[in-house]
Amino acid sequence: MPRDAVLGVDIGTSSSKGVLVGLDGTVLRSAVREHTVDRPAPGQVEMDAEVWWDELVSLSRELTDGGDAEVVAVGASGMGPCVLLTDADDTPLRPAVLYGVDTRSTAQIARLNAELGIEEIRRRCGSDLSSQAAGPKIAWIAEQEPELYARARRLYMPSSWLVRKLTGAYVLDHHSASQTTPLYDTVAQQWYAPWAGRIAPGIELPPLRWSGETAGTVTAEAARRTGLPQGIPVITGTIDAWAEALSVGAHRPGDLMLMYGTTMFLIHTVPGLLTDPALWSTVGALPGTRNLAGGMATSGAVTGWLRELFGKPDYAELLQLAEASGPGANGLLMLPYFAGERTPVMDPQARGVIAGLTLSHTRGDLYRAALEATACAVRHNIEALEKAGGDIRRVVAVGGGTQGGLWTRIVSDVTGRPQELRTISIGASYGGALLAAQSVTDASIDVLSDAWNPVCETVTPDPGNAARYEELYGLYRDLYPASADVVHALAARQDR
């Protein structure tokens, strides 16, 4: 007899992932669909939303094909905040504009800051406007593509688009809405009509739900396409990093999640509203929770870029070479700002820098320098979180970059922080499955996350590396201001 299971699907920057999970947390099957984003111009990063639905259909068909499990609920998450505008018939009008890696809206940010007031935006919305905010990207489309925008009626993100396709429901979770700054009032936890009507005129903003609430049930047409049973519940879902935090139980006050992926993301759960111009303040995925968050524009993207340059050797080989290079990468220092930088630098015109290169440096040195650059950026963000009033008592690491051990060890050595690793590091798709399971059981998310995914290892700092990394971090902090003028001039040439 088939066992009851839940399906979790996550739409990421470089791939979509699906996982079929028994109600006891056992991973029955998982699958991946790789894809690419489009970069039509410098600073612009987009994706065709039809890919999101096609890949969910494909993943669902593959994962449920065995006949040994009966799916009883579905959870979806995705990268964000993104801006997908559709017409009244839900036809996408253009490719979706992606999250903070897309930096096209600098002029709109400056204009909205002048019109609405930086302090007032921060007070009402929790965060300053930055490349992460969805509101200015909507304004960019309205200004740069007015004929297209005139037909826009609805706003979607990856998770809410999948919910719409599966159930017909038009909803968005509170957390995702809190990253549409300045459309959402994070104090009142609702859309702020005066600014929403001004920045997104004509858009019917979606009703708001919490991530684990049921958005609707699978329609007959969606069941035909996906192979899922008609009528089973689909949760509202959320942005991938927040689903990933839930997947490893990092959602309690004092917790900090580090997500090792194409980008590095940090989510710190705080007991109340905290704001800081160098960070993002959001409502959490769960009712009653709030977060201070940070994110790098690149991390795994840089190591992937290096791998391409090196002729695509196995990552295991590169990690071995980086291990042999040793702390400090034989005198190399990198700034990982290859796509601008988000928190706490907040500089879309920042660029990558590799300092100290000689003819004797090797692939291992360069790869090690990239890992150490990410670790230094993590420490910079942690310092900003604590300066803003955060109280970090536990660090939990998750994501593909935790595999192999070296990267997490370097981050612990540079930051001086232990990191918990959970048994399952699949990530956001597993978090979506967790939320789906909560919707059909009586168990709380705390009980489920600890039972499904217990701690398997704690990475601790090596005291022998502390002095060397303390010196390296000081040089890292000095390098950005020392090189900023030159880098900005080069970025301007790239934008021509």
Automatic annotation (TrEMBL):
SUPFAM superfamilies: Actin-like ATPase domain
Domain of life: Bacteria
PANTHER family: SUGAR KINASE, XYLULOSE KINASE
A GO term for molecular function: kinase activity
Native source species: Streptomyces oryzae
Carbohydrate kinase FGGY C-terminal domain residues: 257-437
The Carbohydrate kinase FGGY N-terminal domain, residue ranges: 6-245
Protein family membership: Belongs to the FGGY kinase family.
Protein's recorded name: FGGY-family carbohydrate kinase
Keyword presence, Kinase: yes
Pfam families: FGGY_C (PF02782), FGGY_N (PF00370)
Keywords, alphabetical: Carbohydrate metabolism, Kinase, Transferase, Xylose metabolism
Gene3D superfamilies: 3.30.420.40
Classification via InterPro entries: ATPase_NBD, Carb_kinase_FGGY, Carb_kinase_FGGY_CS, FGGY_C, FGGY_Carb_Kinase, FGGY_N
CDD domains: ASKHA_NBD_FGGY_RrXK-like
